[in-house]
Queue: 2 jobs
Job 1
Amino acid sequence: MNRLNILTFPDPRLRKKAVPITAFDKELEKKAKDMLFTMYEDKGIGLAATQVDIHERLIVIDLSKDGSDPLVIINPSYEVLDDALEISKEGCLSIPTFQQEVPRAKKIALTYQDLKGQTQKLTADGLLGFCIQHEIDHLNGKLLVDYASSLKRSRIKEKLMKSKDVNNKS
Ligand code: NI
């Protein structure tokens, strides 16, 4: 398994819209495995393919603390079952040190395909529901910073660009 490089804000590639997946083959399986490995290494609970510069509609999620509950979600779409909004406080592996409160649908009905291309359905609320909505935002080129004020957004942009300069020099 390979640890993939995670793009960080404000990398413009994070804004690309991902395309649907049509081939359910070994290559897709490998991408999903590498993404799960990368997510575990970076201690995340969700990762969208966009974040590792793969612009296909593929997401991995694992809310367990021990890597025992991996979920691979392909070509997701959802319907809102309870349109009451809840405030979810979120972070993102592509925006280190940043946290943002986001209004999310309370309960969703997700339809997706698994690695074999079989259609699956899942009803999700709480952390899982928020995480799915966050990752689908990534596939559409949307980021947590888009929910922040422009002042907060420019501050984090400046901070992350500075830390990138430091990294490049070392
Ligand atoms: Ni994220």
Note: Residues 150-169 form the longest helix (20 residues).
Job 2
Amino acid sequence: MENLDIRSLYIEELTQELKAIGLPAFRAKQIYEWLHVKLAENYDDMTNLSKDLRTVLSDKFPFTILEEVDALHSETDGTIKYLFRLKDDRVIESVLMKYHHGNSVCISSQVGCRMGCKFCASTIGGKERDLLPSEMLDQIYRIQALSGERVSNVVIMGTGEPLDNYDNLMRFLKILTDAQGLNISARNITVSTCGIPDRIRAFAKEGMPITLALSLHAPNNEVRKQLMPVAAKYDLKEVMDAFEYYYEMTGRRLTFEYSLVEGINDEEEHAKELSKLVKGLNCHVNLIPVNPIKERNYKKSNNKKIQNFKNILEKNRINVTIRREMGADIDAACGQLRKSYIDKNSV
Ligand code: SAH
């Protein structure tokens, strides 16, 4: 049988597991704190446990941490992009972004992705596997340990579709926001999805005030289908209804992500149609100039077009910002670093 993944357990479950080998509850508390607050790399770090106990634990519940393979530092804005190796030798990427309001980490939720968005590097090799809760947590833990920076915000916007790895995502979010763990406020967490209606509805019922971002990228289903295969499966109306339901249940302002792709979704008529689509919603639109990847022929809209697009939304009194391109000098678009690593290392 596979070993139990001790770092994916809730404290209550950990307490039970340790009780089964004769350990009292206060030990579970200490160990949980080592794992999730003091960010231990191994049992030998846990200096308030006896050597014998550390040996027992490492036999019974072995764990390994993510291994840093590479870290790229942006010259322009301090962004650091990390490439981590998992236990099974696969690699994932995560990003640390430094803002005035605090440090934000962008994590991956899967190894690869099966959603197939046309402009995205993460989806080219398909999905290899889901990430475990501990592997999602560890991206934040290692970045905090390696950079010496305190992480206050987390965005699940790296490689993968988080709602396609639903149970692991929920467990990850509950441990991340646990007062006895790293205790990151749910209000400082954003989950980004390509839009899977039944999962959005389930997520709405979890009772966590997390910001949900919808990767919209088009004002209607026809244009959306050109960029996102998922639009062929779920009609935009169905996705928007689920998204509104998320607002009703959580009261969290909705975020729309809209990557501007030259000649596809960046015309004035698209901006007008988008204004109509989101009018009346408590929402924010993030315009992202698409980051071209070499495998595809998509181009970034020019600045004038982007500005014009924004002006039309503003005229319609839609909250809108053009997303700053963090770390553009270090392959910061979703999946690019991982993809170039895999290309370089495969024969
Ligand atoms: N699967 C989730 C989260 C990961 S992608 C989702 O679809 O939201 C995070 C965001 O980056 C999404 O809005 C995605 O569409 C966008 N994105 C991916 N590749 C991009 C690129 N090359 N240029 C601009 N935005 C991109």
Note: The domain at 67-345 is CATH 3.20.20.70 (TIM Barrel).
